[in-house]
Amino acid sequence: MKPSLTLMVILFMVSAVTRAQVAPAANIPNGLPGLPNLPVSGTLRYDLHYSQTVQFYGGSGGDTQNSILSGDASYANTSKRLPFSLQYGGGFSWVLTGPPSAGNVFQHLSVSQGMAWRKCNLTASDNISYTFETPTMGFSGVPGTGEPIAGSGTTTTPDQTILTLNTRSLDNVTTLAFTDKLSYATTLNLGGSWGEMRFIDNNGQNTEMLTGNAGITRRLDAHDSVSGQFSFSQYNYSGAGYSTQSSAALFSVTRQWNQKLTTTAAAGPEWISSSGTSSSGSLAIPSSTMLSLNASANYRLRNGSASLSYSHGTTGGSGYMLGAKEDSVNGNYSRQFGKNTTVGVTGSYTRSSALTAAEFVAVCPSGSTSCFCPSGDNVCILQVTSTPVTDARYGGVQATRKLGRYFNIFASYAAIDQSSNLQTQISAQNQQSSYNTNILNGINQVISFGIGYSPREKRLKK
Question: Structural domain tally of the chain?
């Protein structure tokens, strides 16, 4: 049995037990009827969804129909000394019509454990996801599941910004963060992370990431604070023979305008370099300096939330570029209308440009003036150098309506669009291996309808 299906079966059984059994008040120490006193305290929530989706491909692929059974769960304890939180979302997508690779298991798990003493805090977290396409909407990243697509707790993994279909990948990031409150107004923060991205069917560039950061935050008054941050990142590429590095020094300003609106803006220089050489023997990525920017705005509505963010900097290349410059804009809006209806809207635009030009190699007829023909050969080799660029856009809207106490119905629409000059077959820098890609070129639309089961959150007490 698949892991996600096992979890959902367990949750269904727990739900059946809690509805079927009636216990005296003395036997409900945790707010869960029929269950013994659990040695935990906190808040537990879970939801189950079933949906039917239709996908329309604007490219060469045919349309598909899928059935998706999914679930999500979250838990957070009430400990101030040892705060712990967990969030899970996953399921299985069955292909009714279309290629079998258009559906598979998808999983996303985020776990965080903190330690607090005096004025110091230490937090260790791990974020791991397994998908059959680039994550876009919702916590699990798969459009049309019925889970919330906007608001808090719906963040997807940020490492994959080049959109792909029918591509199984495993993405894992482990983070360690430390803060020390040096004074009432000054805080020191240190951190680091290690991550890896693996393409299970060898149709992407496996990448490892190592980062570190240190900074100081100074609170100016009740509404304003400033900070200085230095960070370092290194990306290693399996089979490429070299790695890329970037360092950035950012100065940021945060202002809380009122109880609803908070904004942050950061800017500073970023230095880019590389280790190793390209196939021609030159430095893979010449050293350079660019401007790094980050900005965000968060607005709390009476019955919802809205956010907008922008970033400009370097990334690991999402598995299809050996380092990239990236501009990204993300927006989310979520609001509850009345007691029974919730609407969520999300959208994103990302432009990724490779840090170094790629050599496109093709065979052309003998006698062509644009080809280089070795002496005595009847076939010429054409070499063209260009910079790979990808423009990716996606957006979605979802409406959810409660049906009674525990059930709801939902409908959603998502559009994923991308244009790219990346090759469908990419060779590693040392030319020892190559892989075919499923990079989206065109538009993919997803229409979904379904039903969900959402019991009230459980408050557990020791």
Answer: 2
Measured CA distances, 425 to 128, 207, 446 (Å): 27, 18, 27
Give the whole-angstrom CA distance, residue 67 versus residue 70.
10
Please tell me whether residues 107 and 237 are part of one structural domain: yes
Tens of pLDDT, residue by residue over 1-39, are 444 443 443 334 334 333 333 333 333 344 444 445 556
Of 186, 192, 185, nearest to 211 (Cα)?
192
368 shares its domain with 427: no
* Structure-token pair, residue 196: 């890896």
H or E element at residue 336? strand 324-337
Residue count of the chain, please give it.
Answer: 462
Listed residue (107, 152, 28, 70) closest to 458, CA to CA: 28
The answer to whether residues 206 and 316 touch, using CB atoms and an 8 Å cutoff, is: no
The structure tokens 């409900």 sit at 28
Query: CA-CA distance, 314 to 233, in Å (whole number)?
Result: 9
Whether residue 5 lies inside any domain: the answer is no
Domain of 367? Answer: 362-387
Instruction: Check whether residue 296 and residue 402 sit in a common domain.
Output: yes
Burial (CB count within 10 angstroms: exposed 0-12, middle 13-18, buried 19+), residue 65: middle
Structure tokens at 375: 């002496």
The mean pLDDT of 160-166, rounded to a whole number, is 87
Q: Give the integer Cα–Cα distance in Å for 249 and 291.
A: 10
pTM > 0.90:
no
Residue 200 counted as domain residue:
yes
